[in-house]
């Protein structure tokens, strides 16, 4: 009986097994697929594409044929506001190549995102295995945005529009220059020095009358003499334009700023030389300026009679900022004025040992960049304000000392900066022989001193435009590009905005006194030499330069 049951069981099992083997295997799911390549205008497309044409043609190639019915849902082109842009879609006969093109021209200098989602399916129903997300940054629209005018008229327009920052935008109580166009009561001592020099250029160009300029200078100097706080005769970096109180620049920088003071004194001495008439109002202005300049105790800032000047002193933190002023940088004028003081002049040894460091520690360069020898300073020259701030009043033509010929220095610095941008080693879209100029400026989310060794892709118009005396052809080329080609983006109420970026389009909405001022002044020096003549005509300036061992035709 047991054997019979076993046989029956084996037979049943065999029957079941035979029945199962006749059933078909379940179907396999459709194979997933991927994109094998993507190009934009026949060039391999990266995660970010720069300088994109208004109607780019994008071709995506897939590993298998795709389902045309799913393409429209999967492909999206959106702008920065996440608004979908219409596109035309064309699938090749074999279903493997999808051509994507905007239905209308993309806006110049804008950012777009192209996405291909997993809603895309293969013709067999397979899933798309790789989501696509690409950024498109559109190119500059090269058409002129402004009516054509002569080069001289363009320089007039540049100076006059930029001057509005210091005239209409000045603080209503003190007449001093606001740090920024939106800084309210915060005014800047150094930027105000630049503003004073801009007023002189504006009078000479006929933008304002001599009487109007004199009245504004009376307001400024009266405020500086009667309200503005001073520390051993030196001014803070920032002041309250209504009260004259110090506005701290940083936690411990709540006292004297000797470099900013030197920019202010440079402007004041230039104004004293300009307002040279015998009328009582002009004589009184000269008297006030003399008192302000003579009160600066430059020797105090040698910190116990050492052979170097210090940048900061605070009534609360004394010398804790601990920033000796050593070259090469924007502070040459500080040593010239400290040596030129009629009341508190520093010894020549402070210049030789403190500023020039006897030619050591990177003061002297002598290397070649783009075939141009750079006499002084860091490799590639540093930010362009090094060759501009001190030389707003200090005429570099024929000026030399033991270390350099300063016209050669400043021309080399400017040329290297321009050539660096033209060579564009970091590959930023938009850099060229017309789009150049690296210096201190606003950048997206902050502020930096741009230079060839600190290049974040941001161009500051002040850099190329304030180099007019050194690189007139290249500066004019930049001016025309900024005005005619980019004018709809960067030409505003106070001239050019502080900075811009074409690579990932960004345009500042700010204006800074220390950037707007040099434009007016250096363009005027290029055109007439006015500010150079005024400042270097001051007897104490001549004496200070001679004391430090300088030679120049005007000494």
Automatic annotation (TrEMBL):
It comes from the Bacteria. Residues 36-133 form the SbsA Ig-like domain. Gene3D superfamilies: 1.50.10.140, 2.60.40.1220. InterPro entries: Cu-Rt/internalin_Ig-like, Glycoamylase-like_cons_dom, SbsA_Ig. Residues 324-538 form the Glycoamylase-like domain. Pfam families: Big_5, Glycoamylase. Keywords: Signal. This is Beta-glucosidase. It comes from Flavihumibacter petaseus NBRC 106054. The lineage of its organism: Bacteria, Pseudomonadati, Bacteroidota, Chitinophagia, Chitinophagales.
